[in-house]
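Contributing new records

If you add data, match the layout below exactly. Sequence lines come first and carry their own label; structure lines follow with theirs. Keep one chain per record. Anything else will be rejected by the validation script.
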Amino acid sequence: MRNRLRFAPSPTGELHVGNARTAVFNWLFAKKYGGALVIRIEDTDLARSDSRFEDLICRNLKWLGLDWQEGPDCGGTFGPYRQSSRTAIYARHAESLLEKGAAYRCFCSEEELGRQAREARRAGAARKCPATCRNLPAGEVAQRLKDSRPSVIRLRVRSGKIVFQDLVHGEMTFDGAVLGDPILVRSNGMPTYNYAVVVDDGLMKISHVVRGDDHLSNTPRQVLIYEALGWPLPVFAHLSTILGPDRTRLSKRHGATSLRHFRDEGVLPEALLNYLTLLGWAPGEDQSEILSPEELVASFDIERVSKSSAVFDIHKLYFFNRHYLKECEPSRTVEWAVAYLMQEGLLEEVDSGVRQWVGLVVEAFLPGLDHLSQISRMAPQLWSFEAERAVQDEGVRQVLSLPGAARVVEELRNQLSREGRDVVRDWSSIVQSVKAASGQKGRKLFHPIRVALTGKDSGPELDKLVRIFEGGSQLELPRRIKDCRERISEFHSAMLSHGPKPDH
């Protein structure tokens, strides 16, 4: 049978970048070697599991660009693909383990186990199951069951070394003597994680288990369960932990890290996919870090995965996103920009003319964006030009204090007030006329023009802004946009009232 991998999230919350990286590595492995990827939902924690999270996880994985061949949404040969629908399967195999003596029933109460653990601590012994019920006679077990005594099913751990190979960490060896007898099935009939995952992986013919190294300590117990069931081991690969900038485990305190957050923020899926792949893996020395999904698949080699923890750097993710935004089809970025501007109430009904105008906005602001949602915070300056406030801004005042700056503003007003001027068509000649009349050039020319038109001392290229102002002023938008003549007239008046006067 071909390689089979699985990604098995719990629907108890949103998918964060650590789990998403695991999904990506499984997907890349399956794609690289012609295998199948299985999505399995581990929802035995019924109190915390929620179907809406299952749906959100699957939708965000698809948004990221991943696909799978089997799962709860598409079915498959080895279903069902939700653990909550597999309890009869777990019970059947647990009975089989009991019958052949590989497992036993334990009737110890929580109070008893707590007391035994405290005694072990006082004695300096390892905290593990004392196996009080391990050798109960069959008749005693039957009587306790007849008396409805609550019980769990425990694995009978063998003595000796437990050895398995890991594609990332190499040969791993554990001592069975320190493990204790783990619970397979709880008293309520629900399986534990270690037991359910082995039954699922075994029956679903999973050939490679690729997951986070926080599961490394679980693996020796799972190896023993495989042995007890008489099933071959899969190949294991445990991925390094993702850390925050302070080199502690990445968590909510480092900021939002869910896939939905980055999707809503306007990070492109191809940028996030590219970046997640580089968390603990690196392409060849002759390759760029910017790789398309096809190039990632072709280059991927799980044996090149690093043992060292990877640091999640939001600034590097935004670096990738800026690259992909520049390469993106304009129609995609325009549609996203429309959505963000509508959320802010800056657009309502959007026809072809508005879309064309938004295209101008995107073209102007895109080089300064880390992610697309920033356009709804940067573009509002198009609507909110207030000359009285602008001339009192410290950055604007510094520009206006430069020799000749006030003269530039006055000459720009004079040029724009001439009849017959088409501001967009004649913008270059207008600027040249202001240059000749004011005697200013370079920064001393363009900075005063910028602050007079935008109220800001930095921003997109002026000729692009002029097209936006003139085009936007002719559209019926929820909030009106002032054209260049209105802007410079208001700014000139505010400057005369609150700023430096023209120096003739």
